[in-house]
Amino acid sequence: MRCVKLLFLCATLAAAADNDAPRRLAARALGETPLWTDLRALCDGIGGRPTGSPAAQRSVEWAVKTFRAAGLTSVTVEPFKIPQLWLPGTAEASALSPVQFPIRLAAAPFTASTHGALEANLVDVGEGSEQDFARAGARARGAIVLVRSKEMKSFDDLFAEYLRNDALISSARKAGAAALLLQSTRPRGLLYRHPMGLDGALVPLPAAVVSREHAERLSRLAEAGDVRLRLNLQNQTGGEYESQNVVAEIRGREKPEEIVLIGAHLDSWDLGTGAEDNGVNVAMILDVARGFQELGIVPRRTIRFALFTGEEQGMWGSRRYVERHRAELDNFVATVTFDTGSGRLSGFYLNGREDLRAPVNAALAPLSGFTASDHLIDALDGTDNFDFLLSGVPNLVGVQDPIPYLPDYHAESDTFDRVNQREQKITTAIASALVWSLAESPQRLRRQSRQEVEKLLIDTKLDQQMKAFGQWSDFTAGQRGLFQ
């Protein structure tokens, strides 16, 4: 049925009046565009793009070139600093006794290297709670510790995996463990990058994600007797380094100082090619910009297209962007962020702002044939809306079906073939109409004060998550959440 609607609306929207910009933009987005050519160039041609890597730099150069080829004349590269470099290198492991076999694993971002190849006994500490380590006792000292995980089935499971990091690392270090092996939460041998910190700071303990099936085998062997492993993790680490955001804009015809920003993160992890996270939305941002240029549509306000890097290291690109543009934050009418793949777009996270529901629905009204009005009031941490939220800027994040996205999150399987092309075309149409309407509306959305933001964080309980992630102190100290 949705496919039939797509074909019908493509035909009817194409026939709309020339002055009907949202429908013209949507009709163009639903037709043949370079969206998939761009995504193949990014994901197949460049591949995985960890911030600080040569591939990440190539993706920045590619994005600049692609924006300019789309006809945008205002395209800039904005450099910024990230405190600490981490890139994956060698990751090898094998069982030595009582049986020999290679172990599939992937280094966990922001963790230390082993000192050469480490040989040690394996100790299974269950789910890695403080009580689990207490039961292991002295056996954990100098050992390679195996931590068990439940299979991930939801965003709640994913966040639980992140939320246990600090306590797990603390218990492992207190016990004197030599390294951590984390059981993959994905079945069928799938590996992924699981950051052990959320700000890019180095964790002084080697750690890796081991395939779910190998972890099960190791656990059974450990239950039967002593198990000895060899582990070699050699990561590239360093101090402060430079990355870059790519920013393009279409200057508004009446209120060019007022800005609607649509953004996605350009960087990715490296095991796959970063298609769902987040190349597909990078390609979409480029195609939205291209649509305005091709149709010669100039909105009342400026539309800014931002491709951030450093997102996977702790949202450094968008954080530094907010710092850099602090003086003009009062002029930001809204930001719209996309970061959950190509699943069906059902609405937008309002990030604690119930006052945004009516204007967003009004902005989407010209495309009522597509249902994208199931908005969620939840306030989000973990993507590039966050520092705009903390600074009071009205911010939206696409609500997309997580079922096809979650298994591929940071994983080997995050490749071009996993993208839902039909749904992403519809999302591109909706995004085009939304940013036009926000930029064209006679009324603008209101920026909140710092006091209002703090109340929002408490009311939505986002403050609890920020405390768990070590972000709350930066907010209370005024280092995040920037106001004049």
Describe this structure in words.
It is elongated and about 75 Å long. The protein is 36% helix and 21% strand. By secondary structure, it is α/β, with parallel strands linked by helices. The chain folds into 2 domains: 2-83 and 240-476, Aminopeptidase (3-Layer(aba) Sandwich); 85-238, 3-Layer(bba) Sandwich (Glucose Oxidase, domain 1), CATH 3.50.30. The chain is built from 16 helices and 15 strands. The chain has an 8-stranded mixed beta sheet with strand order 3-2-9-5-6-7-8-4, with helices on one face. A 7-stranded mixed beta sheet has the order 1-10-12-11-13-15-14, with helices on both faces. The protein has helices at 2-14, 21-30, 35-46, 54-69, 130-136, 155-163, 165-175, 212-224, 275-295, 316-324, 357-364, 386-390, 421-440, 450-459, 462-468, 472-476; strands at residues 74-82, 85-97, 101-102, 105-107, 118-124, 144-147, 179-183, 207-210, 228-238, 241-250, 255-265, 301-308, 332-337, 345-349, 395-400.
